[in-house]
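Work Package 4 report. The design task specified in the project plan requires that, given a folded chain encoded as structure tokens, an amino acid be chosen for each position. We show below one input record used in the internal validation round.
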């Protein structure tokens, strides 16, 4: 199935509200005392943890200075209930809003409560709106300097490991925009992550449909795609395309999921995970349906490529489901056995 450019353009230009504005869900998280968090020091590149504070509802809020971006990045951390034994780390990335809005794993799902029952550090960067969590070739007038690949692969992990006394074993999960990023980052930093969960992400970004999808997402946030990877003919697009470099995903525990775009169980009037009212439901079904159809196209192409390469992965392709949080909450839980396998933790 090939999604037309006009259909994808209409979907994203109308609104990304289906991803960015849904009803909140009460969550739980493991509490931690900031006073018990040991200093991480300053890395050779100048990155450091500037401050640690208790977060509302439990967990910690870190201000981490990124030398590459020359600014502090807020990072939410949930530690396991038992901090006496070192734990592995799950990096949990938000969607197009970067966690700077109200559409976050914390606010829209029970992910923290679910993960709080496991022996894992959860690390959730708050920032990177519309950035695709990558290193941009040039500063953007709207989005500024984006060096998120450097931050997530070189600057943040050593600080987290030292400060939390982590094991150094990592996994990464992302949704929508960051469903692309979590496939790019392990390729950029081999060995850093052992498991990956990509939920409703578009892996094939240098293909015309994938490129148009990324371009339109960036346009919704005011960013210029030429500042990210250049014009479509620029080799940077293929260089950062997980589909093109799928052979470098070998050895990872991979979980890849997507809905079909057809209305499903969470696409009902005033569903707690959806947009309110008849207008909200229409938006979720129409816009969220086309967005999910686009990522479904990418995900199935990636499945075909990985199969050709003999690279195993766990796939969950549902016959229904739009681009919205209720489905992603379910898929994160389904991905846990795959994530846990790489983290060395129980799968159930």
């Amino acid at each position: 199935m090939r999604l037309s450019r006009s259909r994808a353009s209409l979907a994203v230009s109308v609104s990304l509200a289906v991803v960015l504005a849904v009803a909140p869900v009460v969550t739980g998280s493991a509490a931690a005392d900031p006073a018990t968090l040991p200093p991480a020091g300053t890395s050779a590149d100048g990155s450091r943890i500037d401050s640690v504070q208790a977060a509302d509802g439990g967990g910690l809020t870190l201000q981490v200075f990124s030398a590459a971006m020359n600014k502090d990045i807020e990072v939410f951390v949930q530690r396991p209930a038992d901090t006496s034994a070192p734990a592995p780390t799950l990096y949990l990335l938000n969607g197009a809003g970067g966690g700077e809005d109200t559409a976050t794993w914390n606010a829209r799902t029970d992910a923290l409560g679910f993960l709080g029952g496991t022996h894992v550090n959860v690390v959730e960067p708050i920032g990177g709106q519309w950035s695709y969590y990558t290193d941009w070739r040039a500063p953007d007038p709207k989005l500024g300097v984006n060096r998120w690949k450097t931050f997530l692969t070189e600057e943040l992990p050593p600080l987290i490991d030292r400060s939390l006394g982590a094991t150094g074993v990592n996994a990464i999960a992302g949704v929508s925009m960051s469903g692309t990023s979590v496939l790019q980052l392990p390729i950029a930093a081999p060995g850093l992550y052992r498991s990956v969960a990509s939920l409703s992400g578009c892996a094939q970004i240098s293909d015309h449909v994938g490129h148009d999808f990324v371009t339109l997402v960036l346009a919704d946030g005011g960013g210029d795609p030429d500042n990210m990877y250049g014009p479509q003919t620029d080799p940077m697009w293929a260089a950062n395309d997980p589909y093109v470099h799928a052979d470098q995903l070998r050895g990872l525990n991979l979980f890849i999921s997507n809905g079909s775009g057809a209305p499903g169980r969470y696409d009902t009037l005033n569903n707690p995970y959806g947009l309110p009212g008849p207008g909200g439901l229409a938006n979720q079904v129409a816009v969220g349906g086309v967005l999910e159809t686009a990522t479904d196209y990418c995900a199935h192409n990636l499945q075909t490529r990985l199969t050709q390469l003999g690279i195993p992965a766990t796939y969950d392709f549902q016959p229904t489901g739009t681009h919205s949080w209720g489905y992603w909450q379910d898929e994160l839980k389904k991905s846990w056995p795959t994530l846990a396998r790489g983290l060395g933790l129980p799968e159930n």
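The radius of gyration is 19 Å. Validation will be extended to a larger panel in the next phase.
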